[in-house]
Design brief:
Blueprint lengths: L17 H11 L9 E5 L13 H13 L3 E6 L16 E5 L6 H4 L11 E5 L6 H9 L4 E5 L10 H12 L5 E5 L11
Parallel strand pairs: 1-2, 3-4, 3-5, 5-6
Antiparallel strand pairs: 2-6
Helix pairs in contact: 1-2
């Protein structure tokens, strides 16, 4: 944190598995009343490989854990293409694809990186049919594409299909941020 000139609190968790460690961090991180409300993680690029310690099963279980803890989840795909801490996006726009209402976090995020208001394109979609094709055709030049991240299926038998759905949804996008809100409103009439 000193190298990045970031202030905050560190939390150490010792666990017998990555899966349990992530679950413990989601539940216990914070100091007193200062608890996190959002989890940021990278998309597991090699999720189809069986020898990957952060397999698709761990990823889907982490999505479930953040939902159960009523926390928002941000998943960065192609994280290596994102700007470093002190860098900004070059000229361009951020496209937002708001598919479902999950608290409004998706609508708040584009304004955080100090993008001029007219550079943010908000497009609403009410169906996910052929969504990737539409997103690719409309957002190919976007510096960043933000998409709602649907929750995993209640039936765990469909978890691998869920991962495939998310992969297809973001296929071909340079920088994508999947956003799963906690369900609690972050954008209100007082915002």
């Amino acid at each position: 944190m000193g190298t990045e000139k970031t202030k905050g609190f560190c939390q150490l968790v010792v666990s017998s598995s990555l899966r349990d460690g992530v679950s413990h961090l989601i539940q216990s991180a914070g100091l007193g009343g200062m608890k996190h409300n959002t989890v940021l993680m990278a998309w597991p690029e090699a999720w189809k490989r069986g020898d990957n310690p952060f397999s698709w099963r761990n990823f889907v279980d982490t999505v479930r854990d953040t939902t159960a803890a009523q926390q928002a989840l941000l998943v960065a795909k192609n994280v290596d293409l994102f700007p470093q801490n002190q860098e900004r996006f070059s000229d361009g726009h951020i496209d937002v694809w708001w598919i479902v209402h999950d608290g409004g976090l998706l609508m708040l995020l584009p304004f955080l990186p100090r993008v001029r208001r007219n550079q943010s394109n908000v497009r609403r979609m009410h169906t996910a049919v052929k969504l990737n094709g539409v997103v690719l055709s409309k957002s190919q030049e976007a510096q960043l594409v933000l998409l709602n991240m649907p929750g995993p299926p209640k039936n765990r038998q469909g978890d691998e299909n869920y991962m495939e759905f998310l992969e297809v949804l973001t296929e071909g996008l340079n920088r994508a941020l999947l956003v799963r809100g906690s369900g609690r409103e972050v954008v209100t009439i007082y915002s």
